[in-house]
Amino acid sequence: MAAVAQALETPSSVTSIKSLAESSALNSVPSAYAFNRNPNEEADPNDPEFAIPIIDMSLLTSGTPEQRSQIIHDLVKICQEWGFFIAINHGVPESLMKAMIDACHGFFSLPDEEKKEFKSGNDVLEMFKYGTSYNLALDKVLLWRDFFKVRTHPEFYSLYKPATFSEVSMEFGKRTREVALEIIKAISESLGLEPNYIYEKMNMDRGLQLLAGNFYPPCPQPEQAIGIPHHTDHGLVTLLIQNEMTGLQVEHNGKWLTVNGPANGLFVNLADQMQILTNGKYKSVMHRATVNNKATRISIAIPHGPSVDTTIAPAPELCEKDGKPPKYLAMNYKEYIQLQQSGKNYMKTGSAFDQILA
């Protein structure tokens, strides 16, 4: 009862949506969390137009030259028209994916006082951070989620609770990075560039990799709250897994499509630096997280980006090849992240593209 009353009177003082959601007195969404979604904007998952593309990673890594060539050819249309796909046969063991989900569940199940040990500011580049919503001081609508973010490359950091988290996250980060780099190599080839073009231009040997865990407890009025509002990611590509509960939605052809793929699949979406590098040829996809009233959803996103000191601009080779001038101004990756994450942009547009249009 006290947690609900506190949320109603001073929502900015709430330190965990998990504690709020578990209150027996909660039977409606507090006004500070009110966010109305239009169900008419959501796609019919049975409509063939919204069948999410699937990429068989084994054909990239161990298939015949003809099979690899076909996958790279398919990536052109996928990256131009969709901006996302589901990767299968990617080499990350399903047991490791489950262990990572379990480790995240273990962290979010810790007492609030223990989780607060990881609380920090709003700098996405910090070693690790924990919180709820996004920016309690600035958000006009609070988010129905708790989260943590850990920087895992080029330096590896980890939450030190629960005890198994460090070992599992190190292996998971290593294996998902291998998948991301293979995808980036194939995307380079799909653009008619050398396989290592993006890797070298983006200084991926020092590239930023994050591990972000999201916890969405059941919501009494899920249609009146949001886990994460529409946004694009700031890096090159993001990989994502979730437990058995769906909630990730991506925008495609003016509709919001709920992602529901194979249990061992990795959802892959392109991000802002890929759109900038390709001069808008490949799209950074808008996506969001919805909530439900049935069970807790846990998702784990693994963004991969350039090194933080890299300056990104449209590739001259692509501009010349396509006969188009650069659409975006050059910007340092760290500065781009700070711009996107600022209160001015995050809840307004979900990206920083408007500020770097040439």
SSE map:
Elements: H1 2-9, H2 17-21, E1 54-56, H3 58-61, H4 65-82, E2 84-88, H5 94-108, H6 112-115, E3 128-132, E4 146-153, H7 165-190, H8 197-201, E5 209-216, E6 228-231, E7 237-242, E8 248-252, E9 255-258, E10 266-270, H9 272-277, E11 287-289, E12 297-304, E13 311-312, H10 316-322, E14 331-332, H11 333-341, H12 353-356
Parallel strand pairs: 1-2
Antiparallel strand pairs: 2-10, 3-4, 4-5, 5-12, 6-11, 7-10, 7-12, 8-9, 8-11, 13-14
Helix pairs in contact: 4-7, 5-7
Explain what the structure shows.
The protein is an alpha+beta fold. It has a single domain, classed as Jelly Rolls (Sandwich), CATH 2.60.120. The chain is built from twelve helices and 14 strands. Helix 4 (65-82) crosses helix 7 (165-190) and helix 5 (94-108) crosses helix 7 (165-190). It is globular. It starts with a helix and ends with a helix. Belongs to the iron/ascorbate-dependent oxidoreductase family. GO terms for molecular function: flavanone 3-dioxygenase activity; L-ascorbic acid binding; metal ion binding. Keywords: Dioxygenase, Iron, Metal-binding, Oxidoreductase, Vitamin C. Its EC number is 1.14.11.9.
